[in-house]
């Protein structure tokens, strides 16, 4: 790793532990910074904090006292999940103390080139596709960021023979300063995380930081059909490679005559791609563009597209049981994601949906629900979604309590050739700790049929 001498003797406050805070604190200590760690958990319940104390790092647990700013603080590295409305951060901004995430630290020490991916939807699928294509092409990709290992931990071990493939959220990007990936990928932008960012413009500004420091020798792979991303791209200094599923992009990636094309040359027939869904074609175009720029082989790109069946819990094919096709899309925690999942299939769909009630209606799901064979709802939002489905005369609507009951009901109602799709359109926290736990419960219920 690069030594990043700018951190030596700096007084750095690491706010919030979890994996990223722990890794950042340990690394900054190694780089010669004077590190203080502050975490809301009590010390007794905080083994990570106890480990850092044993390494000679000052740790203050249990609250976020403003007195931490009474002494010299040159930099704050914060956990991405802590909002900027936190009183300590508000006071730090008044004092003009830089506030960053460990993504900036990872960039400063990395010897490896970075491919960075962001967007409202599709980040994990695109990141995984890029990683698979590079790995199959003999490169050495290291996955980091929002999936995989904490970015600064990966960067610490990476050499210039590696390439870091980094999935980034708006929370992580908002805390960057000089971050400059070799290749940035901008997928799409929809209303999201407004409770964190406050306004849509702040959310857009955070996402745009992925390319803010790029120069002409760097590359921006971007969705030309997304109006907001197109605006960001026009102001970028990077060399631009556009992609679109709805218009031709002669100098980039598009779809024409049933083929994915790069600079008008056909690469692979859409019918030969294993991953279903128009939205996944967008992810594929982005991944192909990034990996071509990173030196992946066309043969291996084609091989991955013919064999890659999806990321776990993201429109993941689970199994074919008596000619019923089960798909796990537990990651669809909002209406937009479920809409895209429904648009992916041209077979009859039995939709399983429901979860945490955040007070929203489901009227915007109606266009995608038209043509669905059956809807089975569960969880806090079961009645709301059922009412929406009945309002457009879907032939069969059932209301149950739990996901296991929904699976049984869907199978009993299904016929050969049907798709049984879990795509909840809601967060999982009414009945599960995470969307992953929800997806695993769905898969177990299928296997228990």
Could you explain the architecture of this structure?
ATP binds at residues 119-125. Residues 117-290 form the Mur ligase central domain. InterPro entries: Mur-like_cat_sf, Mur_ligase_C, Mur_ligase_C_dom_sf, Mur_ligase_cen, MurD. This protein has helices at 18-30, 47-54, 87-94, 102-109, 123-136, 151-157, 170-174, 194-197, 200-208, 227-234, 278-293, 298-307, 335-343, 366-369, 382-391, 403-413, 435-447; strands at 11-15, 34-39, 58-61, 75-78, 99-100, 113-118, 141-145, 163-167, 183-186, 219-223, 239-243, 253-256, 259-262, 265-269, 316-321, 324-328, 349-353, 374-377, 396-399, 419-422. The protein has 3 domains: 8-100, NAD(P)-binding Rossmann-like Domain (Rossmann fold); 103-307, UDP-N-acetylmuramoyl-L-alanine:D-glutamate ligase (3-Layer(aba) Sandwich), CATH 3.40.1190; 316-447, Mur ligase, C-terminal domain (Protein-Tyrosine Phosphatase, Chain A). The strands form 4 sheets. It has a 6-stranded parallel β-sheet, sandwiched between helices. The protein contains 17 helices and 20 strands. The chain is globular. The longest helix has 16 residues, at 278-293. It has 449 residues and is an alpha/beta fold. 35% of the residues lie in helices and 20% in strands.
């Amino acid at each position: 790793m690069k030594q990043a001498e700018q951190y030596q003797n700096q007084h750095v406050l690491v706010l919030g532990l979890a994996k990223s805070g722990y890794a950042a604190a340990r690394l900054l200590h190694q780089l010669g910074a004077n590190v203080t760690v502050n975490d809301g958990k009590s010390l007794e319940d905080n083994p990570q904090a106890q480990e850092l104390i044993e390494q000679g790092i000052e740790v203050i647990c249990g609250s976020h006292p403003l007195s931490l700013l009474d002494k010299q603080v040159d930099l704050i590295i914060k956990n991405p999940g802590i909002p900027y409305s936190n009183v300590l951060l508000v006071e730090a901004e008044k004092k003009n103390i830089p506030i960053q995430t460990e993504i900036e630290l990872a960039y400063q020490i990395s010897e490896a080139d970075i491919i960075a991916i962001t967007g409202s939807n599709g980040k994990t699928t695109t990141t995984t596709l890029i990683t698979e294509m590079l790995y199959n092409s003999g490169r050495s990709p290291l996955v980091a960021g929002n999936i995989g290992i904490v970015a600064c931990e990966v960067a610490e071990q990476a050499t210039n023979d590696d390439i870091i493939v980094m999935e980034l959220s708006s929370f992580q990007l908002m805390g960057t300063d000089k971050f400059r990936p070799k290749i940035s990928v901008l997928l799409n932008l929809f209303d999201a995380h407004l409770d964190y960012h406050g306004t849509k413009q702040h959310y857009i500004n955070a996402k745009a930081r992925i390319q803010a420091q790029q120069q002409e020798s760097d590359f921006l792979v971007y969705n030309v059909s997304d109006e907001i991303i197109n605006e960001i791209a026009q102001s970028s200094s990077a060399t631009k490679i556009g992609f679109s599923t709805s218009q031709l992009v002669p100098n980039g990636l598009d779809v024409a005559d049933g083929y994915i094309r790069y600079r008008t040359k056909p690469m692979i027939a859409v019918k030969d791609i294993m991953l279903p869904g128009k939205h996944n074609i967008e992810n594929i175009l982005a991944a192909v563009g990034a990996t071509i720029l990173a030196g992946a082989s066309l043969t291996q790109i084609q091989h991955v597209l013919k064999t890659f069946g999806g990321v776990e819990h993201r429109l993941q094919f689970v199994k074919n049981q008596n000619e019923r096709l089960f798909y796990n899309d537990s990651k669809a925690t909002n209406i937009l994601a479920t809409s895209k999942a429904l648009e992916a299939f041209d077979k009859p769909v039995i939709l399983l949906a429901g979860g945490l009630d955040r007070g929203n209606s489901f009227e915007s799901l109606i266009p995608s629900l038209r043509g669905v064979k059956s809807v089975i709802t569960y969880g806090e939002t079961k009645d709301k979604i059922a009412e929406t489905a009945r309002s457009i005369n879907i032939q069969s609507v059932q209301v149950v309590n739990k996901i296991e009951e929904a699976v049984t009901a869907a199978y009993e109602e299904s016929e050969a050739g049907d798709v049984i799709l879990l795509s909840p359109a809601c967060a999982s926290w009414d009945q599960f700790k995470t969307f992953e736990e929800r997806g695993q419960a769905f898969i177990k219920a299928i296997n228990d049929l």
